[in-house]
What does this fold into?
Amino acid sequence: MIVNLKEILPAAASESYIVPGFNIFGMDEAWYVMKAAEEENSPVILMANKDMVKLYPVELLGAMLHSVANQSSCPVCVHLDHTYEEAIIYRAMESGFSSVMFDGSQLPMEENISRTRAIADAAHAKGISVEGEIGSVPYTDEDEIKDEKTTPEQALAFSKRSEVDAMAVSVGNVHKLTQPESKIDHTLMKKIEEVSEVPLVLHGTSGICSADMKMIINSRVAKCNIGTLLRQAWGYTLRQEFSAQPDVFDRLTLTKGVLQTIQRVATEKIRELGAAGKA
Ligand SMILES: [Zn+2]
It folds into this structure.
């Protein structure tokens, strides 16, 4: 069944679990991640990221993920990840997405709040949830995106005035790390929690070590974005399958083991985040 963030995040924020948001790069991957959630009886968020939106019409991505969500017996949120342009978000709202992220993190705070608020008003009228970002979570490979930790003052203002359903914060997390090397500032995290009225989101989960994750599970963080982990599972397994079966050319045969690995890694993440049984 299709749900939005408002239906699944408040419980995760107040209880000790986190709903995983997986970046999805194809129909088959969406299906096997959904199967992992179904078998674990977990809520899940299927996300189209900005690289996918550059390659394919947002209408196609929304229709595809929406169809997968409709086939599922567990709660599935269909979410558009980091988007800087309102025009794409308005198209996504007509395309099957139940949730969108307006990323105003590169803007001055007042402009971030007012533009996020305008999106939230339009989205809420359609029953669609909105994620915003305050502070700026850096990337390992995109120097133009700022590296700026969220201050408690910013978190308070943003959570009170932007009308978002989920607030992404920057507390030492980094996008696209291939090893768990993030240095999470738990003191800052606590201060942000104390002043925030909306569920929190951490991006860059593949770079967070399991000891940090255990602490984060008990916080008001309700959604964690996972991209690199599944991309690694996909790429490394596909390479093994190619070398193990040099004469095979059939796509379904070559990707069978890859998709089994995707499902297994998604299952492990669902369990690590404590989301199993929370559907
Ligand atoms: Zn992100």
Notes: Residues 82, 137, 175, 203, 225 surround zinc ion (CB under 6 Å). The first strand starts at residue 2 and ends at 3.
